[in-house]
Automatic annotation (TrEMBL):
Residues 433-452 are annotated as: Disordered. It comes from the Bacteria. It is an enzyme of class 1 (oxidoreductase). Keywords: ATP-binding, Flavoprotein, FMN, Helicase, Hydrolase, Monooxygenase, Nucleotide-binding, Oxidoreductase. Its EC number is 1.14.-.-. It comes from Actinomadura violacea. InterPro entries: Diverse_substr_monoxygenases (IPR051260), Luciferase-like_dom (IPR011251), Luciferase-like_sf (IPR036661), NTA_MOA (IPR016215). Residues 25-388 form the Luciferase-like domain. Belongs to the NtaA/SnaA/DszA monooxygenase family. GO terms for molecular function: helicase activity; monooxygenase activity. This is NtaA/DmoA family FMN-dependent monooxygenase.
């Protein structure tokens, strides 16, 4: 029997992914935009709808980076509202574990899970920079190992809070004076990162624990996912890279007493459809040029060069000056954290070999269209990834807000259903049902702590 494909929808609205010059693009803040994409995803029987999070407006050369969209609503608030206009679609929020506290995050996620009837998910992320930390009382930042240690204990603490109410603790009839047992909600956690005790005031979520998502690709991130996540986002969009990542992460699960089916690997991908393969390729090239405007190309290069390059022609050759490897000119963008000197070296080599201008190089280096072709060829390619263990499914990031998934749901999803590799309808009410995940046992977090 073929593997079943999992699909998710990412709401675009920041970076240069969305083509804002397209007349079909609408607001990234208006609730109607969120509703449109969520309803489209639910019509397509997607597993979940995903919102990213940003805790500070990014800056370039000391000013707000206005090529980004300046403004992003808080994820859990939006998803709470969407729970009222959807019935089966999972609702996944990115919530930071570096600048939040377990009690409040656990309470908010439990609330969304209750409001939605068991459809909440939490994408656990960490922050690496003091720039973001300036928005918070604690300030500062954590070293790489420390932020994952905090994230792991943060998650385990949240699970203890959810488990502090057993499944039978919800009052049957509070109006008649029938309340939960006296011990309901009692917790005490004393660890390296958190020392808290009291009573948790949100009953155990319908799913037991909301679904946990993780997106790290480092060694620490992969270990965190293998130990604690239900879904991991992947950046590996080719068959070869996807299979290597899949094998590596799935191979880590046994050390934590978990099965391969307990963790779903879902790369973030895009798509472009056309009537023919040539038509699709032409459309994809047009979209890439719209996403990488001349201004975006220069700004992107500045992030790696660490210099003001505004005097350079985006349609001309790469700068002939060496990068400044100091603090740089970009604040709040993780992509510029790596070995910038090596990146510049590789880009010079690529541009020289192919005669690429600045803009052409950035288009090549940031290519995003994973699936380009006719509806039939895209459906076949999606299926190939999953059946050959390069992924368990995909998180689609459309280039239009909010109608960017319309064509996928209308033309590709029916072909996947026809192939018998994607559901014709939801078979259960919760996100764990959609993903085929086992429910956590009540008290599992407590048992984990005692075993350690």
């Amino acid at each position: 029997m073929p593997k079943q494909i999992h699909l998710a929808a990412h709401f675009p609205g920041v970076n240069n992914t969305t083509v804002w010059t397209d007349p079909r693009s609408a607001s990234q803040i208006d609730f109607g935009s969120f509703v449109h994409l969520a309803e489209t995803a639910e019509r397509g029987k997607f597993d979940f709808f995903f919102l990213a999070e940003g805790l500070r407006l990014r800056e370039m050369k000391g000013r707000i980076h206005d090529l980004d969209v300046a403004g992003r609503p808080e994820s859990l608030t939006v998803l709470s509202a969407l729970s009222a206009v959807t019935t089966r679609l999972g609702l996944a929020a990115t919530v930071n574990s570096t600048f939040n506290e377990p009690y409040e995050v656990a309470r908010r996620l439990a609330t969304v899970d209750h409001l939605s009837g068991g459809r909440a998910a939490w994408n656990v992320v960490t922050s690496w920079d003091a720039f973001t930390g300036e928005n918070f009382r604690r300030g500062g930042y954590l070293d790489e190992a420390d932020r994952y240690a905090r994230a792991a204990e943060f998650l385990h603490t949240a699970r203890e809070l959810w488990d502090s109410w057993a499944d039978g603790d919800l009052p049957a009839d509070p109006a008649a004076g029938e309340f939960a047992r006296p011990g309901a909600g009692a917790f005490a956690h004393h660890g390296a990162q958190f020392g808290i005790a009291g009573r948790f005031n949100a009953p155990r979520p319908p799913q037991g624990h909301p679904v946990i998502i993780q997106a790290g690709d480092s060694y620490e991130g992969r270990e965190f996912a293998a130990a604690d996540a239900d879904v991991i986002f992947s950046r590996h969009g080719t068959l070869e890279d996807g299979r290597a990542f899949y094998k590596d992460v799935k191979g880590r699960l046994a050390r934590y007493g978990r099965r391969p089916a307990d963790l779903k690997i879902m790369p973030a991908v895009t798509y472009v459809l056309g009537d023919t393969e040539e038509d699709a390729a032409e459309r994809a090239a047009e979209i890439r040029r719209a996403q990488v405007s001349p201004q975006n190309a220069i700004a992107f290069l500045e992030g790696y060069w660490g210099r003001d390059l505004s005097a350079y022609d985006p349609d001309g050759p790469l700068p002939d000056i060496d990068p400044d490897l100091g603090d740089g000119v970009s604040q709040g963008r993780a992509q510029f954290r790596g070995d910038r000197a090596e990146t510049v070296r590789r880009w010079r080599e690529l541009a020289g070999e192919r005669g690429l201008s600045i803009r052409e190089l950035v288009i090549e280096a940031t290519a995003r269209q994973t699936f380009v072709g006719t509806a039939r060829s895209v459906a076949d390619r999606i299926d190939e990834f999953v059946q050959t263990d390069a992924a368990d499914g995909f998180v689609f990031v459309p280039h239009l807000t909010p109608g960017g998934l319309d064509d996928l749901v209308e033309h590709v999803v029916p072909l996947l259903q026809e192939k018998g590799v994607f559901r014709a309808d939801y078979t259960g009410p919760t996100l764990r049902d959609h993903l085929g995940l086992r429910p956590p046992a009540a008290g599992s977090a407590r048992s984990e702590r005692e075993a350690s």
